[in-house]
User: Fold this.
Amino acid sequence: MGYLAGEYDVIVIGAGHAGCEAALVAARMGSETLLLTINLDMVAFMPCNPSVGGPAKGHVVREIDALGGEMGRNIDKTFIQMRMLNTGKGPAVHALRAQADKFLYQHKMKETIEKQDHLTMRQGMAEELIVEDGVCRGVITKTGAEYRAKTVVLTTGTYLRGKVIMGELMYESGPNNQQPSVKLSESLRQVGLQLVRFKTGTPPRVHQDTIDFSKTEIQPGDDKPKYFSYETEYAEQANDQLPCWLTYTSEETHQIINDNLHRAPMFSGAIEGTGPRYCPSIEDKIVRFADKPKHQIFLEPEGRNTKEYYVQGLSTSMPEDVQLQILRSIPGLEKVEMMRTGYAIEYDAVVPTQLWPSLETKVVSHLFTAGQINGTSGYEEAAGQGIMAGINAARKAQGLEPVIIDRSQGYIGVMIDDLVTKGTNEPYRLLTSRAEYRLLLRHDNADLRLTPLGHEIGLISDDRHARFLDKKSRVEAEIARLKETRFKPDEAVQAMLAESGTAPLQNSVDGVTLLRRPELTYAHLERLSPSPVDLTEDMKEQVEIQIKYTGYIEKQLQQVERLGKMEKKKIPDDIDYSIIHGLATEARQKLDKIRPLSIGQASRISGVTPADLSILLVHLESYSRVGAARNSG
Amino acid sequence: MNEDTIAAVATALGEGSIAVVRVSGPDAIERVAPLFKSKADLRTAPTHTVHYGWMVDPSGGEVLDEVLVTVMKGPRSFTAENVVEISAHGGIVAVQSVLELLLRSGVRMAEPGEFTKRAFLNGRIDLAQAEAVIDLIRSKSNKAFQVARKQAEGALSKEITPLKSQLIELLAHVEVNIDYPEHDVAEVTAGVIRDACSQVLAQVERLLRTANEGKILREGIVTAIVGRPNAGKSSLLNALARENKAIVTDIPGTTRDIVEESVTLSGIPLRLLDTAGIRETSDVVERIGVERSRGALSDADLILLVLNRHEPLHEDERQLLEELQDRSTIVVLNKTDLEGRLELDEVTRRYSADRIVSISAREGTGIDELEKAVSKLFFGGAIESADLTYVSNVRHISLLHQSKRSLEDAITAASDGIPVDLIQIDIAAAWEALGEIVGDSVGESLLDQIFSKFCLGK
Assistant:
């Protein structure tokens, strides 16, 4: 019954947030690409919260955009609210967060994919990998269609042997009652991949007209919103944003949950998958934090043309009847109608230490995985891996070396390195605290970090690159100008200083020194000494941040440089750890399993000590001397 | 990749007559030069030359030891890098203080076997010896590991662990504020950071003081007994010696031309300076006044100023009382067995009651009070030698100093209105330095803390 349905350079399985980015970049890099998904109506679907961004996650969206990906542009087209978070803190942790129109988000992404050259989108369920001699050559679908390709990217999300759990009820299902992908899981095991079982969950959705908003607090968007994409100059929804609303659980809520704990699958043992600690269900929160009298509940619109509201903070797998009771115990929701029931979902994921930093699997070459299948959680995390898997699958198909973003270049690099080097024993979420160079990985400088790379690999157009270079040079010129500009203790300067509540000048100082005073901003200096060339708000912000935080930035740059030497010391892929005399047994096993590409990566494997690294270095040195001797002899 | 500069004691630790501290790395010469007082400038010294001079702490000008310094420029050195070898007087104390000084000035403590490793990586050691190099690294680090584990299980770890918990709680709180900005967790304010860091800082400083106390216990307090002839210096010395018959030893001075004796006063060793001088003057001529004692004064940690209570104050004594009032001085009023003729208010005007002790050296009374006064002056009262944790390991001291600096930076930054996510860098550095002492690493435990302490989720 099988038939050859097509031959491609790259096949991407799954059209969620990872799959969309992977397919788009592969096609944009000139690879003939097939995007295969179970249901074409579910492209870029948001099965959980209707929002994109926030700390670390928003940074990833900026990085995706800086590389030439789609998520930033798509959310800018479809947001219903935009807010900059953490504005009271340092620039490194300012984080943009959008509320999305879920439905519009899907439609716009699907439209972009449909218009993309070299990209074919098709409905179909992949059930079996074609693997010949350890090389992945394509997939076979449920209908018997055999698609062949040079490389394959798997982005199966929570569909892989998905199982939905609601109280006593349990059934095989993908998210939102979609068909799960069962057979593919078996095929992955057969080719030698080790799988784990993870769990996540989502709260119920309720009808807007049954919410009493007078009992809640309004949470509006920013008046002058910023955007995710460096290319977005203006979005008309900025003037017509929808608010979210804040309420809290009540004593009654906690009572209902406590009374029904025996029916909670979390505690009855029905759930075998490991759930994320940072995203516990409401029943989990109430048990673990029993002394906390109330928990926040945010009510978030799911779109502009729907009455559905997402109840953030109430993720649960309690039985449906209990969920309704819980909802109605919350102020403002006394008469609420539940439109969709919350549920927990279990799924298979690949143990991510089986991947190279390129996201290619070690056991099967030419096979890449991205997103939830790698043990992460979150749309942004998925998209961040998707773009890298897409880039590397396309490059592999074109016979090029993989592109790897390191930990000092982006949150994407931090995430992938964490996954492939340390693995994860719960669904992995990015947090800014996972980045050791948080100050360098700012929301504002994603383009400085990654756009040159995006251009180099053919994802950023020459035109956009030229605009980027222009911005960069204007910022540098303005910093240089301020360094040269002297501010004298004259009347205008002293008045400005007094007005901003900072000490008057004794002697003249340069602009850079002056701007480092905590009370002053670029706007203050600009009033007295405007830039001779035009600067956008973005550029001014860049000038200010680079000047104000030089000290801290320099410190981190030095660290990067020091550790960079370890990253540059490469370990050959054919290294045989079993013959290295002196390595501790634990280190030997871990090194052999992870197969780090550099001494830097090796140093981050838990259980590998500095002594083991020294021994490894000594071994590499002998190895290269022997090699050199052989070549010269 | 070996571009930092490292140091370690290259000779076996112990009581050898000479110990060598080896410094290797591109900045070895530049790092040592400002700490070395000599006619020669190491920066311009030719390679493979030896120089005589003193190791001096540039911050306080304190002379640590008389040393010989050898400069060897790479690649003609053991590691093929620039190498400076400092030969100090043997014994743990002198060598450790030199090493500590280097670590404070930014040199890193070498890992076990690291000199040999560098020598190998830089091509100085034959390939055939690679295995021997590996064995060396392995065995040395195993030993270091055993020592570290002993310490981690020991008293020091009990001191450090609560400090680490305090800092990690603070860090977790800061991180929650950053990563969950809309969550109903109170914001960590600059005030909270200042308070928490100050508390930990006070404890770190206390531990560093014990390092100092530990040093005192090992080395002894350098003590000068001064006073006019016939005030009773020699009787005091004899009284102290009587209490400590077994411990009186003669150590020929190494850098000074003075004879020292060592006595123990309720567990605190005192190194008495110029005891010979005191004996001579008392036995022979009475004419030699305070001048001779004065030479010893500048080196002393503790000064015992002996006054004869039976006579009115002499002009020399008034002068000494004034000169010494800001130093660690205890006024010893001798001859309480005789009638008091001394103007006591002249003394009490300048010295508090706990720094004035009355004794009768001849009858041997009052020595207990003197012991208490010394102990109070150096250990803030009770001496806890039995249960105090003394930080004595050079690496630990250097890590405690690092932690201290980071905490001070955090406190300053908090006062200057720097955003919390930047202050976090300093707090984390302080925490990591403490963690290194007890051998923990960063990473997952912070996340554990975040998720176990705060109720987060969507």
User: Anything to note?
Assistant: The longest helix of chain A spans residues 462-484. The mean pLDDT of chain A is 94. Chain A has four domains: 3-199+346-457, 205-344, 478-554, 569-631. Chain A is about 35% helix and 20% strand.
